[in-house]
Specification:
The structure holds two protein chains of two kinds. By secondary structure, chain A is α/β, with parallel strands linked by helices. Chain A contains eleven helices and twelve strands. Chain A has three domains: about 1-75 and about 155-170 and about 185-225, P-loop containing nucleotide triphosphate hydrolases (Rossmann fold, 3-Layer(aba) Sandwich); about 85-155, no CATH class; about 230-280, no CATH class. The relative contact order of chain A is 0.15. Chain B is built from 14 helices and no strands. Chain B is mainly α. Classes of the chains: A alpha/beta, B mainly alpha. Chains A and B meet through helix 2, strand 6, helix 3 and helix 6 of A and helix 9 and helix 10 of B.
Chain lengths: ~280, ~325
């Protein structure tokens, strides 16, 4: 479990996180949502020690994150952000092998090689083994980086906007992979994501941040409601139940006037089943 | 793979023989054995020259590789990041402080300035966050130009133009026994970089990947800057400025073999030596019996290849970069 205790962070007078406290349970997918600049990525970078908080602390499995030896932490937490150098000419296999660096320090043992092979297989990258990453498509690159994280074999996997620049097909592919990692390998996955419908369909819990404060950290059913989403994003939403998934519609403003002013929270959910085929 | 390395070594050995046996006075293997004068010329001039060219070629190329990884830009190198220009300024300062400064003092000041200069350059490019990677070396070249003007200005004011000129242009003509040994500090540095090659490759993937894998990113960047500045300073102090080797050799190797430094480093070093040796031999034969300095030949060939590499890169669609 990850415990976030009283974290604050400012950039030149600008409070990005304001006394944030919450918990991220193990073994499930938690999505961070919220408007731009709400503090999602900052919170993720502080949890993963990429960034220092002004005050407060983060506990990973009960131990303060700063107390971990960096190499030990690299065997517990992995992070994938969007600012990787994609011009680098290393092959997919070399990239995935670097995922074993915290264990092997570059001298791959039999066990490391096995894990690398397994990770490449798991992400369906065998046919791209010897291709340079700068020659791959955006979706393939993202899969290759996730394969590196799989090889790193950490309990916790953090991804900052993993669907950035991906088309719908590749987005679905990546989210399904993360779902599998969580279900089959018991990984705890934390993602920062903009598409609330992907968050709704693929995560177990959603943590919504607004103005540097955690607005809600709860199950998908509790968060994806017109009332909560309106408070988080300051705009109107309609939420439909389609085959058991909560799908939000927000593309045209002013459509849900008749819902929000006399309902609060869950009561405003519009349940409507998917139109039957034939 | 093995075979490729063998070819390069054979090529390099051939070039080395050519280098040893061309020059104003004709020397044959027989002369070296039978004639004491020729033997002394051979071992005091030709041999040191060959060793210097090989070490400088490898050193400048690997400095380039390291700087390219830690700046995550293909076109950064000691000559396109202000490192060499700052090293020269350091030498000028050494001469101004004590006219009879020993070579060690010059090296230390050149190193300090080269390190500071590279650090400032990295700071600038991190601030700018240019979208187009081809602009970074242009900034570096302008930056070098400014620093070189400052150096020339003070050299002129203090009547040291003649003195500083010898560091402006890289040349191997003056290399004799006793004046090149300093270069050999590049060898342990090269070994060190080879041993820690993975650190630099990972650093090249970016700060967040590095830190996710448990690397102390800042430490790796600083270590890389120190090692490449030290090699650059040793080169500038002993032979002068050698442009473009550090950018074109790593780029060509990267095209064919990628950027995994542990794998490519021996090739980059060997090809750097071979390239500089070709440039040196050309400089010695074009206007024989006179000599064109090696910085002119590397500058001419190097700038053409550099231009090609930049134009080639810009044709690549930018879709993959975000």
């Amino acid at each position: 479990m990850i415990e976030i205790q009283n974290i604050s962070k400012s950039y030149d007078q600008n409070k990005v996180l304001d006394h944030v406290s919450t918990e991220i349970p193990k073994g499930c997918i938690t999505a961070f949502i919220g408007p731009n600049g709400a503090g999602k990525s900052t919170l993720l970078s502080i949890i993963t020690r990429m960034n220092k908080a002004d005050s407060g602390q983060v506990l990973v499995d009960g131990i303060e994150v700063g107390k971990y030896d960096t190499n030990e932490l690299a065997q517990k937490i992995s992070v994938l952000r969007q600012n990787n150098n994609l011009q680098l000419r290393i092959t997919v296999k070399e990239l995935v092998s670097f995922g074993r660096y915290p264990y092997s320090k570059g001298r791959l043992q039999e066990e490391d090689k096995r894990v690398v092979q397994d990770s490449i297989h798991y992400m369906g990258l065998e046919s791209l083994n010897d291709r340079y990453i700068d020659e791959l498509s955006g979706g393939e690159q993202q899969r290759a980086f996730i394969a590196m994280v799989v090889a790193q074999d950490t309990d916790y996997i953090f991804l900052d906007e993993p669907l950035n620049n991906l088309d719908m097909k590749h987005s679905v592919e990546i989210m399904s992979m993360l779902r599998r990692l969580c279900k089959e390998r018991g990984k705890t996955v934390v993602i920062v994501i903009h598409d609330i419908n992907f968050a709704s369909c693929y995560s177990d819990r959603i943590l919504a941040i607004r103005d540097g404060k955690i607005f809600i950290n709860d199950t998908v059913d509790a968060v994806i409601t017109p009332a909560v989403l309106k408070d988080v994003y300051n705009m109107d939403f309609q939420v439909y139940d389609i085959d058991g998934d909560r799908i939000s519609v927000y593309y045209k403003s002013g459509h849900s006037h008749h819902h929000h002013h006399h309902h609060k929270h869950n009561s405003a959910v519009v349940y409507r089943s998917k139109p039957e085929h034939k | 793979m093995r075979r490729k390395k063998l070819y390069i070594i054979v090529l390099l050995a051939g070039l080395a023989l050519v280098s040893l046996f061309i020059g104003v006075s004709d020397i044959s293997v027989h002369d070296i054995i039978s004639n004491a004068d020729d033997r002394s010329l051979f071992f005091s001039s030709r041999w040191p020259r060959l060793v210097s060219v090989l070490v400088v070629g490898a050193g400048m190329s690997i400095s380039g590789v390291v700087m390219q990884q830690i700046s995550a830009n293909r076109f950064v190198s000691p000559s396109t990041a202000g490192t060499l220009a700052f090293a020269k300024l350091g030498i000028l300062v050494a001469i101004m402080l004590t006219p009879s400064a020993s070579i060690t003092v010059k090296l230390l000041l050149a190193f300090a300035f080269a390190l500071g200069g590279s650090w400032i350059f990295l700071f600038i490019i991190n601030r700018i966050r240019m979208k187009d990677s081809a602009f970074i070396p242009i900034i570096g070249i302008m930056f070098s130009g400014i620093i070189s003007s400052v150096t020339t200005f003070f050299a002129y004011q203090f009547d040291l133009i003649q003195n500083i000129d010898s560091w402006l242009e890289g040349r191997f003509a003056l290399i004799i026994t006793g004046r090149y040994e300093l270069l050999l500090i590049c060898l342990p540095i090269l070994l060190l970089i080879y041993l820690y090659a993975d650190l630099f490759t990972i650093a090249g993937m970016g700060e967040s990947v590095s830190r996710s894998l448990g690397l102390n990113y800042k430490l790796v960047v600083n270590l890389g800057l120190i090692l490449s500045s030290l090699m650059s300073a040793a080169v500038v102090v002993t032979v002068g400025t050698i442009p473009f080797v550090g950018v074109i050799v790593p780029n060509i190797i990267s095209l064919y073999m990628g950027d995994n430094i542990r794998k490519t480093l021996p090739y980059t070093a060997l090809c750097g030596s071979a390239f500089l040796l070709v440039c040196d031999i050309l400089g010695r034969v074009i206007i024989y019996p006179y000599e064109i300095s090696v910085s002119v030949t590397t500058g001419t060939i190097g700038s053409a290849v550099f231009l090609y590499l930049i134009l080639r890169r810009r044709k690549v669609p930018h879709g993959a970069a975000n």
